[in-house]
Amino acid sequence: MTDKKRCLTLHVVVPDRSQRGATVEVQPLVDGEDILTKAFAEGRGEDPRYLLLPESPLIAVAEPHEVRLAEATCTEGCCGALYVTIRRDGDRVIWNEWRNPDKDDVDLPEFWFGAQEYQAEVERAVADHSWEWPARTVARLLELHLKARTDWLAQWECEIGAVSAWVWEPRHIDLFLLHPGRSALREGLPWLQFRMTLDVSSDTPEKQAERLADQLVADDPRRTAEICGGSPEYARRLGYPLPPRWRA
Q: Looking at the structure, do residues 120 and 154 belong to the same domain, yes or no?
């Protein structure tokens, strides 16, 4: 292990609105250097919704665990991803065992950080939402509301896939639902993904999220959502009409 103590900064990068398809990313800076750009040119860093949630996978514990920091633009299965193993060793947090499933070696060394400084930086980044635009804040708060109302989802055999806000579409958010749930994907059973597009307004994000949650839980979301994932065969087996794009 190198004897040099490093400094970690978790920097959130929001793309320009003109970059359609570009996503927000977390850039880990080690001593101010962007290590993702150095070691992984195939895609962007992970979205804050995966790395900077309250139970962040970046939190270091004694048991080593692997965290994905970046994924290829075309998906991991096509061109790889960048993983690191994180563990706490006394007053140190260690990042090592770098891995890209698409390559034999990753050109990054082992890093270690002071445990207190590291934890403080993770907590700071998790709590900092200053980079969000209004629709992104509504999406984050709405997802929290909906996940707290598990009876609603269970009633309609749905799970939340994501509540997304895209920087190039600032006036609405997209709610994605999986039916009957992620277990169907894992077990090779029929499944469908539904999407609902929800408009945002000039009200405070807190009021909008609460109002949208109340509206959504009042009815079966599948009645007004569109099928956007799965397959025609799965739709038939689950008893749903094919969407127009699958009828051609």
A: no
SS3 assignment, position 115: helix
How far apart CA 202 and CA 210 sit, in angstroms, is 14
Q: Looking at the 3D structure of the chain, how many domains does it have? A: 2
What number of CA atoms fall less than 13 Å from residue 184's CA on the CB side?
A: 16
Tokens of 74: 């075309």
Distances (CA, A) of 244 to 191, 198, 222: 18, 21, 16
Q: What is the mean pLDDT of each run of 10 residues along the chain (248 residues)?
A: 84 90 92 90 90 95 96 83 95 95 85 97 97 96 90 90 94 95 92 96 94 92 92 93 81
Instruction: Report DSSP state, residue 221.
Output: G
Does residue 78 lie within any of the structural domains? yes
Q: Which of 99, 113, 100 is nearest to 30 (CA)?
A: 113
What range does the domain containing 210 cover? 134-246
Task: Judge if 111 and 167 occupy the same domain.
Answer: no
**pTM of the predicted structure, to 2 decimals:** 0.87
Burial of 239 (0-12, 13-18, 19+ CB in 10 A): exposed
Report how far Cα 136 is from the mean position of its chain's Cα atoms.
12
Token pair 């408009």 in the structure block, residue: 199
Residue 221 lies in a domain: yes
On whether both 170 and 112 belong to a single domain, the answer is: no
User: Rounded to an integer, what distance in angstroms lies between the CA atom of residue 133 and that of residue 166?
Assistant: 10
